[in-house]
Write a structure and sequence with these properties.
Blueprint (H helix, E strand, L loop, with lengths): L10 E2 L7 H19 E4 L4 E4 L22 H21 L8 E11 L6 E4 L6 E8 L8 E4 L25 E3 L7 E5 L4 E3 L14 E10 L1 E3 L4 E3 L5 H7 L6 H10 L13
Antiparallel strand pairs: 1-9, 2-3, 3-4, 4-11, 5-10, 6-9, 6-11, 7-8, 7-10, 12-13
The protein binds fe (ii) ion (FE2).
């Protein structure tokens, strides 16, 4: 008898967001409209993020950004659909007690626009489930998301790697998904993930656009037998003023000018 001791679930939603085409059209409009303030390049180029300021700007809490701050019905519907999927994953697969359900803390666009561009394996912090939605995705040319086996400590300790007859859940060092457009993937946030360089070839040469929407989820209330705490999204103004000693008005203005992005709030966006 073999006992399967520990396992990591990857959730792939069976159904689809019914307004996928509308969302896709809207998102291409969004990136055109908001490029100057909400677009960031990652890595060596070819990876564009929208509504996701890079970590080195974390010392400016006013840079909190999220696609879901845009006050648009299609985004509200998509947000609700995503929460529904992850709530189900948390309650029925992970089987956590989650009576109040959860929320998407942040959501951003990840676009690969150059052949050879890739995203190095990384984790998302301060959340329990992360997810990605394949907005514009062709498995024939775009790299699928890859997950690293968390039991493989190869990055921090010596290890022995052996060839295997076949990859299985006990010997695989990583797993590459087989995804298609419209797929919604969910996983515990501690899992390291990334994607390799897309294999772009004719007739796709001029159509390199792997576009996904990434997001992080937290329960509205974290409950254990000893205590519970509520989770709320950051309030940029509150952080700024409560930590006023670190952010004098002049500093704030200088900071804001030095960055190419700025915080957004519903109703403040240009049309
Ligand atoms: Fe990620």
């Amino acid at each position: 008898m073999i006992v399967e001791m520990f396992s990591v679930p990857l959730g792939i939603v069976d159904g689809y967001f019914t307004k996928h085409n509308e969302l896709k059209k809207f998102m291409y409009d969004v990136v055109d409209r908001y490029q100057p303030d909400h677009r960031w390049e990652f890595g060596g180029g070819g990876i564009e993020n929208y509504f996701n300021p890079p970590g080195y700007l974390d010392d400016d809490p006013t840079l909190y950004d999220s696609l879901f701050l845009i006050d648009e019905p299609i985004l509200k519907e998509f947000n609700a659909w995503c929460v529904e999927q992850i709530d189900f994953f948390v309650s029925n697969t992970l089987e956590y007690l989650n009576p109040k359900g959860g929320m998407i803390l942040d959501c951003w666009g990840n676009r690969c626009t150059e052949e050879g561009a890739y995203v190095v394996p990384h984790i998302h912090t301060n959340c329990i489930v992360s997810a990605t939605y394949n907005l514009n995705f062709d498995p024939a040319q775009h790299a699928c998301l890859e997950f690293i086996n968390p039991l493989n400590q190869g990055g921090t300790a010596p290890m022995i790697e052996m060839a295997s007859v076949e990859n299985n859940q006990f010997n695989a060092l990583n797993l590459t998904t087989r995804a298609k457009e419209g797929d919604f993937l969910m996983w515990p946030s501690y899992l390291k993930h990334g994607y390799g360089a897309s294999q772009i070839h004719e007739p796709y040469k001029n159509n390199i656009d792997r576009f996904t929407l990434a997001m992080n989820y937290m329960p509205k209330q974290v409950t254990s037998s000893r205590y519970a705490f509520k989770v709320s999204p950051p309030d940029p103004d509150a952080i700024r003023w409560e930590e006023g000693a670190a952010y004098l008005e002049d500093d704030y203005e200088r900071h804001k000018k030095a960055s190419t992005g700025h915080p957004i709030r519903p109703g403040e966006l240009p049309r």
